[in-house]
Amino acid sequence: MFNIKKSMAALVTGLTLLVPSVHAGEPAKSLLTPDNHTVILIDHQPQMAFATRSHSIEDVRNNVTGLAKSAKAFNVPTILTTVAEKSFSGPLFPELKAVFPEQTPIDRTTMNTWEDKRVTDKVKKFKKNKIVIAALWTEVCGVGPVLSAIEEGYEVYFVTDASGGVSKEAHDMAVQRMIQAGAQPITWLQYLLELQRDWARTESYVDVTNIAKEHAGGYGLGLIYATEMFNAKEGQ
After folding, report:
1. What pLDDT is stored for residue 103 in this prediction?
2. Global pTM exceeds 0.85
3. Quick one: which of 113, 150, 116, 107 has its CA closest to 134?
4. Distance CA 157, CA 153 (A)
5. β-strands 78-83, 106-108: how paired?
6. Following CA atoms 174, 30, 99, 227 in sequence, which dihedral angle do they give, to the nearest 10 degrees?
7. Which residues have a Cβ under 8 Å from the Cβ of 58 and sit 6 or more positions away?
């Protein structure tokens, strides 16, 4: 007698064998995660910004604030440092102070942040092998710590659009030099989305989309539009 249930079961089994298994791939070890790196924000001060020509001051201020908020949203250890704050360069951008109101920036005399023991002691205390750096200016205060940290065995990521040089050429050549030494160039929005990685991570969804709405230009405006018009959400 023909057995429908057995026939259907055999058919399902056969189809299953024809369909390749889908397994999640392992994420690259070079990707940033909230718990594998430290952020260092270097010399985002008025006097340094006045001479920046590779990017507009408005863009640098927006981008480094987006970067700082991203780090804070994911509880990434973040070091703020300035150079000659009282005598020459002025205070840290107020929007960065607002992100980390409890933190007093480390004020240095050395142009190379890595040569200030207070900074390197903090880095070692956090015990993270990866470092994310943004700096004014790229060709001086960015290159110095990036090259130094690389030579000490750290993996370094340089945030190109939250940094700036005295000319486009100065910035570009400095970035090239860092890349040749092994640094990885990233942008601030790339950083934010790399930490989020999966829209199913609901615990950080609101923070991430709010940061994007405030600082990510057209993408942020698109999020506002989609939310208001269709109550849409990323990943749904």
Report:
1. 97
2. yes
3. 113
4. 13
5. parallel
6. 110
7. none
Give the distance, in angstroms, between the CA of residue 37 and the centroid of all CA atoms in the same chain. 10
Q: What is the pLDDT of residues 83-125, one digit of tens each?
A: 999 999 999 999 999 999 999 999 999 999 999 999 999 999 9
39, 48, 49, 141: which is the annotated catalytic residue?
141
How far apart CA 31 and CA 23 sit, in angstroms, is: 19
- Kindly give the residue spans of alpha helices, DSSP state H, lying in the chain: 4-18, 46-50, 57-73, 94-99, 117-126, 143-151, 168-181, 188-196, 202-215, 217-230
User: What is the side-by-side order of every strand in the sheet holding 78-83?
Assistant: 106-108, 78-83, 37-42, 130-135, 155-159, 184-186
- 152: helix, strand or coil: coil
Please work out, in degrees rounded to the nearest 5, the angle formed at the alpha carbon of residue 196 by the alpha carbons of 192 and 197. 110
φ, ψ for residue 151, nearest 5 deg:
-65, -20
Is 224 a known active-site residue? no
Which residues does 170 contact at the CB level (< 8 Å), separation at least 6? 54, 137, 138, 139
Determine the Cα–Cα distance for residues 168 and 140; give it in Å rounded to an integer: 14
